[in-house]
């Protein structure tokens, strides 16, 4: 891993003017964005972020895909650029921006075809940081958040286990009291940012026999004795998302590692799921827009039977359907983003959003790849990455089947 990283980080720099302008924009933003995002200002955030991503990520991404890992240095560079934890409170090193800004960063990465890293970025900024900000003590926030903002610490969330995926209530990882400490044992699988992680929020049973009501969350230092990481899990897509199996063998945790109250873990996770699913929807919709953009360019250049592919009625109708689906899903997404900012986004609405947007993303990627013909099936054409990166979206963060059940319960009961 070290060799691959060192080889892919040569000339890994960002122009100083991009960093300076981004930091300046963060510093002068109108704080009323915490109530409702100002569209003009948010557009400036997007433009500056895209410029930074184009300089920091685009030249290296193909190599990182081949390495199946982004270099650790990327997190440091994004921290230097002020691109990590934008909605973390200012007292902990963030900009105190609206969650809209974090979601916009996820969108830009996704639209640019960086689906794997968009997932890791979302875990760090849209899940772990908010968990800490909303449920951590002052001491916990002061210890972890400033270093998450600089990139010194990379965050991960560990809920899924080999025998417990969508069924979070079936987790077996457990923490037992031993004096003033907790002793953690168990394992987690499919953990995004698992290799690079320095901080892992771990869900563990603390009161056996109570199921979900006996679950707690812990802030686990990934460098603690007894904490082990597997090699990176090899996936069919999202290669730059480092995904790992984690093992906890008598990991001793101080009392202050408990996040929130004892046995309140399941409640915290359920309360935070709407934001997690909002972030996944941001990936789905922006990636679909990115796939459509490169497909529109291709069909207006590629010729068959003496005319541009884009002139065939089949192509025109297929892309009209794609554009319509994306537009409808974006409207729903923006409505949900406003509801989240106002504290009104419900679990069932977030489930509908994730279900609709991720299923749409897979359809869009499939339709767009089809229009590339055989070229679409080659790694040389970026549409193939949009296709394979999309597939996991209907699985993680709550599968489509679970989303349907949650929506059904909201209208029919259990």
- Report the sheet with the most strands, covering strand number, pairing sense and barrel closure: 4 strands, mixed
Helix-strand string: HHHHHHHHEEEEEEEEHEEHHHH
Q: Determine the structural class based on helices, strands and strand pairing.
A: alpha+beta
Strand order of the largest sheet: 1-4-5-8
Shape: globular
Number of strands: 10
> In percent, how helical is the residue content?
40-55%
N/C terminus separation: 48 Å
Number of helices: 13
Layout of strands and helices, then pairs:
Elements: H1 2-8, H2 16-28, H3 39-56, H4 61-67, H5 72-80, H6 99-111, H7 115-135, H8 138-150, E1 155-158, E2 174-178, E3 181-192, E4 199-205, E5 215-221, E6 227-229, E7 243-254, E8 258-259, H9 265-299, E9 303-304, E10 307-308, H10 313-341, H11 347-371, H12 383-390, H13 400-412
Parallel strand pairs: 1-4
Antiparallel strand pairs: 2-3, 3-7, 4-5, 5-8, 6-7, 9-10
In short:
This protein is an alpha+beta fold and 414 residues long. The protein is built from 13 helices and ten strands.
What keyword list fits this structure?
414 residues; alpha+beta; four-stranded mixed beta sheet; four-stranded antiparallel beta sheet; 10 strands; 51% helix; 14% strand; disordered N terminus
